[in-house]
Amino acid sequence: xxxxLRCRDLGIECNQIxxxxxxxxxxxxxVEHVLTVHGFDVVEAGMLEQxxxxxxxxxxx
Length: 61
Known about the structure:
This protein is of the alpha+beta class. The protein is 41% helix and 20% strand.
């Protein structure tokens, strides 16, 4: 099953929805998005915990 995360669920004013086939890939894409689009210098452990908590599993057909 695919994974999905809404950037807004991280407390950021952003409508981006990030999707991936695995949780690991989703975390990588989310970190890349936060660094490049939102200008973060680093993603700290606390944010990684927020990312993991905000991941949804979606059914694909």
